[in-house]
């Protein structure tokens, strides 16, 4: 996230928020397809193979 200016909630004074690095998680294609193209009868029952339990 880039650096930005914000307001202190109590005093309304302008404060600088420093830039920071964040982790962005991107689901694997298999997971994304299973969620988006699953049949209605299997909704909520997605089984991921190859992942440790």
Percent of residues in helices comes to 10-25%
Structural class: alpha+beta
Distance between the termini: 33 Å
Multimerization state: single chain
Q: Output mean pLDDT.
A: 79
Low-confidence stretches: none
Q: Sum up the overall morphology in one term.
A: elongated
- Give, in spatial order, the strands making up the sheet with the most strands: 1-2
What pattern of helices and strands is seen along the backbone? EEH
Approximately what portion of the residues adopt beta-strand conformation? 15-25%
The count of DSSP E runs of length 2 or more, i.e. the number of strands, is 2
Number of domain modules: 1
Structural summary, described in words:
There is one protein chain. This protein has 53 residues and is of the alpha+beta class. Helices cover 15% and strands 15% of the residues. It is built from 1 helix and 2 strands; from the N terminus they run ββα. It has one helix at 29-36, and strands at residues 4-7, 14-17. A two-stranded antiparallel sheet has the order 1-2. The longest helix is centred in the middle third of the chain and has 8 residues, at 29-36.
What's this model, at a glance?
This protein is an alpha+beta fold. The protein has one helix at 29-36, and strands at 4-7, 14-17.
List descriptors:
two-stranded antiparallel ribbon; 2 strands; 1 helix; 53 residues
């Amino acid at each position: 996230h880039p650096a930005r200016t914000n307001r202190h909630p109590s005093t309304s004074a302008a404060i600088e928020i420093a830039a920071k690095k964040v982790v962005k998680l991107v689901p694997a294609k298999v997971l994304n397809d299973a969620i988006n193209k699953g049949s209605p009868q299997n909704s909520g029952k997605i089984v991921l193979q190859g992942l440790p339990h």
